[in-house]
Automatic annotation (TrEMBL):
UniProt-recorded name of the protein: Pyridoxine/pyridoxamine 5'-phosphate oxidase
NCBIfam families attached to this UniProt entry: pdxH (TIGR00558), PRK05679.1 (NF004231)
Cofactor binding annotation: Binds 1 FMN per subunit.
Family of this protein: Belongs to the pyridoxamine 5'-phosphate oxidase family.
PANTHER family: PYRIDOXINE-5'-PHOSPHATE OXIDASE, PYRIDOXINE-5-PHOSPHATE OXIDASE
Organism ancestry: Bacteria, Pseudomonadati, Pseudomonadota, Gammaproteobacteria, Vibrionales
Gene name per UniProt: pdxH
Length: 214
């Protein structure tokens, strides 16, 4: 089969202007809840795109851990490639691919580091194995073999067998302040519905809404 022959029609319904709330996070909340109710695999998974000093884009999958009108939150190793790139260029793009629902959400914005208090609160809520993994992995650094990673994990597991795991100094999180949010709903005959919310610079609580051609 040729790749160019792989296609399907989109039939789950459209998105109309009268369906849109004034604030995009309200619609995002509705769509995320529906993705969870539909039991999609990893409904909070999002592609995070950053750019290095040479302008080369990079993407990876990260889990959304919180969102509200202030922004979208995720956590990571502060020595990772994404964190190093955000230190030079805080502009960021997020993408949620809810294909079974024939929906996508694309977000642009600026990433800011979370406070130490926020990081501690979330890190303390993680399973102990996840806490240990944060210590064991120097994210994005080169490994000689997987055994080195597993050995470090087991060493830490024994070290903190009877005590609490402290927050690594190299671990933290980001809040993405949204500049724009686009909602994509698949439509029949490739006549998809796309609406772009753009935050007004002079009144940040107000959004311009435009329909985009598919």
């Amino acid at each position: 089969m040729e790749l160019s022959d792989i296609r399907r029609d989109y039939t789950k319904g459209g998105l109309r202007r009268h369906d849109l709330p004034a604030q995009p996070e309200i619609l995002f909340d509705q769509w995320l809840k529906q993705a969870i109710e539909a039991q999609l695999t990893d409904p909070t998974a999002m592609t995070v795109a950053t750019v290095d000093a040479d302008g080369q884009p990079f993407q990876r999958i990260v889990l959304l851990k919180h969102f509200d009108e202030k922004g979208f939150v995720f956590y990571t190793n502060l020595g990772s490639r994404k964190a190093m790139q955000l230190a030079d260029n805080a502009k960021i793009s997020l993408h949620f691919p809810w294909h079974p629902l024939e929906r996508q959400v694309h977000i642009t914005g600026t990433a800011q580091k979370l406070s130490a208090r926020d990081v501690l609160t979330y890190f303390s809520s993680r399973p102990k194995e996840s806490q240990l993994a944060a210590w064991a992995s120097r994210q994005s650094s080169r490994l000689s073999a997987r055994q080195a990673l597993e050995s470090k994990f087991m060493e830490l597991k024994q070290k903190y067998a009877k005590g609490e795991v402290p927050v690594p100094t190299f671990w933290g999180g980001y809040r993405v302040t949204v500049s724009s949010m686009e909602f994509w709903q698949g439509g029949a005959h490739r006549l998809h519905d796309r609406f772009l919310f753009t935050r007004q610079a002079d009144t940040p609580s107000t959004w311009d809404i435009e329909r985009l051609a598919p």
